[in-house]
Amino acid sequence: MICTVIVRRLKPGTYDDFRKAWEPKVWPTGMLKNWLARNDDDPDVVASVTLLDLDESGLDALRDNPEWVNAEVERLQLIGEFEEELVTSGFFRVVEEHGPAATTA
After folding, report:
1. With DSSP H G I counted as helix, E B as strand and the rest as coil, what are the percentages for the chain, rounded to 5?
2. Whole-structure pTM value
3. How far is the C-alpha of 1 from the C-alpha of 12, rounded, in Å?
4. How far apart are CA 82 and CA 18, in angstroms?
């Protein structure tokens, strides 16, 4: 399982335009969940978190997929118009999963 985390500071007042540009034309292979969140204290700071059902070889295959790579380059160029700062960005291998115990009725 792979998780991506990207935090951006947007130019003030550009969230709606950013949101339109952010929507992928080609969704990543293996994507299970995708969240877009805004900071309560500063709504121009946004975080996107994506959960991918991929192992290392699946991630390499995604990075080698020209359709996804080209679409992602185009998407990032569009996003760049509304981005003031890329705070952090990375791929992370999920090593543990936690949550409340399942209950039965």
Report:
1. 30, 35, 35
2. 0.85
3. 34
4. 6
What structural domains does the chain harbor?
A: 2-92 (3.30.70.100)
pLDDT of the chain along its 105 residues, tens only? 999 999 999 999 999 999 999 998 888 889 999 999 999 999 999 999 999 999 989 989 988 999 989 999 999 999 999 999 999 999 999 999 888 876 665
Q: Which ranges constitute the DSSP H helices of 1-105?
A: 15-22, 56-63, 66-80
**What gap in Å lies between CA 63 and CA 69, rounded to an integer?**
7
> What is d(CA 55, CA 44) in angstroms, rounded to the nearest whole number?
33
CB < 8 Å & 24+ apart, contacts of 64-68: 65/29, 67/26, 68/26, 68/28, 68/29
